[in-house]
Amino acid sequence: MDQNDLKTRATLWIESWNTRDLGKIMDHYADDVELCSPFVVDRWQLAEGRINGKDKLKDHFVKAFSSGAANNLELVDFLAGVHDFILLYKDSKGVMSADLVELNDAGKVKTVKSFYTKNE
Known about the structure:
Elements: H1 3-18, H2 22-27, E1 29-36, H3 38-44, E2 50-52, H4 54-67, E3 73-80, E4 84-91, E5 96-103, E6 109-116
Parallel strand pairs: 1-6
Antiparallel strand pairs: 1-2, 3-4, 4-5, 5-6
């Protein structure tokens, strides 16, 4: 995948998130996706911060939307790798985030490692 393809995928994910289109959001992910995120620790009380599988990820997003924790996102920067990229974005409350996103051979997200600033 070239940088334009990767950036298009990232932009479409942000747009899907901002419209709360769960179907389009989930289309980006492989069935065996793994998410490692501080929000997993907070939302699910899982100390390792990892959830596995598309169904569990969908539950994670549903919980974010229903709790009001999901904010609109603004893409700040994008860094391309070979089969991966880093998304730097901020939410409507100004919280900065970075996601390291790795894709499988089919172009679906297989791993996400998320990093956040904390507003205390």
